[in-house]
Design goal:
Shape: elongated
Strand order of the largest sheet: 1-10-9-4-3-2
CATH superfamily of the largest domain: Rieske [2Fe-2S] iron-sulphur domain
Number of strands: 10
Largest sheet: 6 strands, antiparallel
Distance between the termini: 65 Å
Helix content: 10-25%
CATH architecture of the largest domain: 3-layer Sandwich
Order of helices and strands: HHEEEEEEEEEE
Number of domains: 2
Length: 158
């Protein structure tokens, strides 16, 4: 009879195991959600490319260049406080080429009047469904600006 009791699970043991299993499942679900959210932050690495003429870009202006391929139009923007930022010029709506509007300090798509923020690449106005792809930059010795990767704009604005 003692063998039968040892093989049976007490109510307390059952509840403890159920609690531990539930906690493990909740933690695992949270990890899966975090991984899905971070997938929007995927960083694509490409060979580093020096952006010729970037050191001559004055604050509040821009420079067009190509990255990561010669067929991929991009724009380097120097903010009024001197920070360099770069984005793909391909509009997320229909693929038209966006332009830097110096007066309004934004990136504008002439095809359907979409407007993007030059600090984030997020859509400020118009039909584009997602932000512009961001070009990852490195500032090197002598003020050289290099493009080193690309971060897709994601499916939504922040």
């Amino acid at each position: 009879m003692a063998e039968k009791r040892d093989s049976q699970l007490s109510r307390r043991s059952f509840c403890n195991r159920a609690l531990v299993t539930s906690a493990g499942l909740l933690l695992a679900a949270g990890e899966v959600k975090t991984q899905k959210e971070s997938q929007g932050q995927t960083l694509l690495m490409y060979p580093p490319t020096k952006i010729e003429g970037a050191e001559r870009v004055v604050p509040g202006t821009s420079l067009y260049f190509n990255y990561p391929k010669s067929s991929d139009a991009a724009v380097l923007v120097r903010t009024t406080d001197g920070q360099f930022l770069a984005f793909s010029r391909k509009c997320a709506h229909r693929g038209c080429s966006v332009d830097f509007d110096e007066g309004r300090r934004c990136l504008v798509c002439p095809c359907h009047r979409g407007v993007y923020d030059t600090r984030t690449g997020y859509v400020m106005y118009g039909p584009p469904p997602r932000p512009l792809d961001q070009i990852i930059l490195q500032i090197r010795a002598g003020g050289e600006v290099w493009a080193v990767g690309k971060r897709p704009g994601g499916d939504f604005n922040a």
